[in-house]
């Protein structure tokens, strides 16, 4: 299995969405919350929608899911909980302790982990979700697509939400509540992609376009892994029935200090001692190798930019 190493400027720092304005926004279920670019522009984050029940646009994506589903950057867990209600085995991953706790309260299964760290069921997920602008995680769409290919089973499906405008933008941002409560030194790379840009990256990496659609003013693309040789150098997985149960080494517990997301120092298999945070059940185990980087905060799907400089 190949190893994805994002560029040096994607090196992780103590992410500001693990506490402060982001955690507070998830606690209250409302914003304002933004990603502030270096030039002072503010990219709005749709906290209210993330903390509400899935809307018709969300459901248009969930209806296309097949097999066990991995929600990458699950946030407060509305999609993980909805998938469970629809009968899908699902796991949400997020670097935010507040997001994982919120997902558990909704009855979902969640793990505090970066997409670039070892995960349960690598090579056996039926569907991966990159919703709410999470195609921007890490600021390197090509590296993220290669990593998702490692996680999916052969012919697995990636459903990604794109910006509703034609854009291919790499930026450095930090989380800001619009009232000056931010940590400007906690800057991380992010990307914003419209559908044309995502399709260019996907075709270059050997993905097949399965579907593209719009709903509720939002845009979506479904991509399919061609085979074990067609995307990201991923080896064919023998067991495509879904992940088996393991435990994550970083359970969310209030009595222990929160570990900030950090890179895996070397490629290694996932450990059988790992723990998964779950409300009532466990996800299944991983057999694959690790990769290095960090997962970033969720972005807005609206693609709007507000000048607050």
TrEMBL record:
Gene Ontology MF terms in the entry: methyltransferase activity
Comp. bias regions, Basic and acidic residues: 231-275
InterPro entries: SAM-dependent_MTases_sf
Keywords assigned by UniProt, alphabetized: Methyltransferase, Transferase
Biased composition annotated in UniProt, kind: Polar residues: 289-302
SUPFAM superfamilies in alphabetical order: S-adenosyl-L-methionine-dependent methyltransferases (SSF53335)
Keyword hit for Methyltransferase: yes
Species in which this protein is naturally found: Streptomyces lasiicapitis
Keyword Transport in annotation: no
GO biological process: methylation
Pfam family, one: Methyltransf_23
Protein name listed in UniProt: Methyltransferase type 11
Residue ranges, annotated region (Disordered): 231-309
Domain of life of the native organism: Bacteria
